[in-house]
Specification:
The protein has 550 residues and is mainly alpha-helical. It folds into 4 domains: 188 residues, no CATH class; 92 residues, no CATH class; 88 residues, no CATH class; 73 residues. Helices cover 56% and strands 4% of the residues. It has a 3-stranded antiparallel sheet. It is globular, with a radius of gyration of 25 Å. The chain starts with a helix and ends in a 15-residue tail after the last helix. This is HERC4 protein. Keywords: Signal.
Length: 550
């Protein structure tokens, strides 16, 4: 309680300072400012708060806004034409997953309803969500517009940039190299290797004495390390080639800024590059798929593990918590392929802000539907027509859809006055039936509690893996009869948000302006807190990687 009160005290004080500094210039004119003027002023304040090293540029903002726009347009709006808290979280979550395979901590639902995330949890655990909550608390029922979401997304990207810089400074220190020194290309690659070791393993105590041992450990224990290193060499070469006139990138004379730009580019590309491992994992699972259902029987899952596919080793309890276990037929347990691929079990890197996990292939399919519909809801006929022409990695199009899919979609529409909400559990379930290998089965909120391997072991005191004896016992007891091919369906609906009627004129621009002062102040405080934490040598990277066999 004291810690929360102290944090709020600092934020309040910073907010008042920010407000006072510009009150004289804007007190009289805020009410008459145009949206463009307001946005420009807000940007200046956020950029000032973030300092001279911030990466927020008009070009970057336009790029982010263009990516956000289709989803924003298709989301349910409140009476002011904006997104409520749950919808804003949902949109930002999808943006970072699609762009970078980054799952921002505090933005994902993690087995809960999007509306069930509480401000207290966010305040205590995740700075990015705290800033989002500050937006919502100050705007109250008015929500976030597209421009505000864009600024927030860009600021989150800046936080990720700051984290990368701080991680790299730790690497320099561990190698006993000053950040003012220039380094040769061979040394630069050694620094990058150490940087990626910290990123992937999440080493908490990293010093000059442990550099060699930690890098040797990951080379031995992580099967993808050789390819990861080749990837970083390729990115480094690409960045250096594009900077041939920049003295910071002079051959065998690389500055800390040059190293920073290289590791930032690695971070930009890593998630999508690493996703190739996820596609390989999916292909391996599909070798054991049961009748095109997007599932494999648990007995086949464990048979594969005993046959050498060591990664298919999760226990029944852990699979259940991940949301990867299909228990619709208790006599024949199965594993949902997309749920398993997209689970926390397969995240390979983590930071204090985000984890790098597999890209949900269903996001691209839903994004296509959003762009086509350009509204929060559509008729069954509209959706059936679009989906019949929409291919996926494993589904060819155009195709004739099974009649059962049409019946299910009309059942959903019957619950919503003849239309289908695009951002609800029932439509997500329908997409799972239409694309069972790409779209995860959406469990009812609260039925699962996804955790990383480390979180599970700390919370339960149990291994995430089944023993060979456990697997053999399950195989001996498993029935030999063929299970039903029908996919599970439940009628529970859960909407991210509901569409509201537009409010009357007179939205208070001044109120929005001073809310965004709060954003600037909060991030100014966040930067200060980060520096304090670094000086205290707090752990930068809690381990969230999958356990690999040696």
């Amino acid at each position: 309680m004291f810690k929360m009160a102290l944090r709020l005290l600092f934020v309040t004080a910073a907010f008042r300072c920010a407000e006072a500094s510009l009150r004289g210039n804007l007190h009289a004119s805020a009410g008459s400012m145009s949206t463009a003027q307001l946005r420009e002023t807000v940007l200046q304040e956020v950029m000032t708060a973030l300092g001279s090293g911030n990466r927020i540029t008009e070009k970057r903002l336009k790029a982010i806004e263009s990516l956000l726009q289709p989803t924003f347009q298709a989301m349910p709006k409140n009476a002011y034409g904006n997104l409520e808290d749950a919808a804003a979280r949902y949109v930002l979550h999808r943006l970072f997953v699609q762009r970078h395979a980054m799952y921002i901590k505090g933005l994902e639902a993690n087995g809960m309803n999007w509306k069930n995330m509480t401000t207290t949890e966010v305040l205590e655990e995740h700075v990015p969500s705290f800033v989002l909550s500050l937006f919502e608390d100050r705007l109250k029922d008015q929500g976030l517009g597209l421009h505000e979401l864009t600024v927030l997304a860009a600021t989150l990207e800046h936080l990720i940039h700051d984290e990368a810089v701080n991680r790299l400074s730790v690497v320099y220190e561990a190698h006993n190299i000053s950040m003012s020194d220039r380094v040769q290309e061979v040394t630069l690659q050694e620094l990058i290797d150490t940087y990626m070791t910290i990123f992937l393993v999440g080493t908490q105590n990293f010093t000059a004495n442990t550099v060699s041992s930690e890098r040797a450990l990951i080379a031995d224990s992580y099967p993808g390390w050789h390819e990861t290193r080749k990837f970083t060499v390729q990115v480094r070469s690409t960045v250096v080639a594009s900077k041939d006139l920049d003295v910071e990138f002079a051959p065998d004379n690389f500055s800390f800024r040059a190293a920073t730009e290289i590791v930032e580019e690695i971070g930009e590309r890593y998630g999508r590059w690493q996703d190739s491992e996820c596609r390989d994992l999916k292909s391996s699972l599909m070798k054991y798929e049961h009748t095109g259902s997007g599932r494999l029987l648990l007995k086949d899952f464990y048979s594969a593990a005993l046959g050498g596919q060591w990664q298919f080793s999760e226990s029944i309890d852990y699979l259940r918590e991940l949301g990867a276990l299909d228990e619709s037929d208790p006599s024949q347990l199965a594993v949902f392929i997309p749920n398993y691929v997209n689970s926390h079990s397969n995240c390979v890197a983590s930071s204090s802000i985000y984890s790098v996990c597999c890209i949900n292939e269903c996001e691209a399919l839903l994004g296509h539907l959003e762009a086509k519909v350009a509204a929060p809801e559509a008729t069954p006929e509209q959706l059936l027509q679009i989906v019949s022409t929409l291919p996926s990695a494993t589904v060819r199009a155009p195709r004739g859809l099974p009649s059962q899919l049409g019946l299910r979609l009309r059942e959903v529409a019957a619950q919503h006055g003849g239309v289908v909400p695009l951002h609800g559990r029932l439509f997500a379930q329908w997409l799972h039936h239409a694309y069972p290998r790409e779209c995860p089965y959406p469990h009812v909120a609260g039925k699962t509690n996804p955790m990383t391997a480390d979180e599970w072991m700390q919370a339960k005191g149990l291994s995430v893996s089944a023993t060979k004896e456990d697997m053999k016992r399950y195989l001996e007891a498993a029935p030999t009869a063929a299970p039903t091919a029908e996919l599970p369906w439940s009628s529970e609906e859960e909407l991210v948000a509901r569409q509201s009627k537009p409010a009357g004129p007179g939205r208070p621009v001044r109120k929005v302006f001073f809310v965004l002062f709060g954003l600037a102040a909060a991030f100014s405080l966040g930067n200060h807190a980060w520096q304090v934490a670094r000086q205290a040598r707090a752990p930068l990277l809690p381990c969230v990687h999958k356990q690999h066999a040696c």
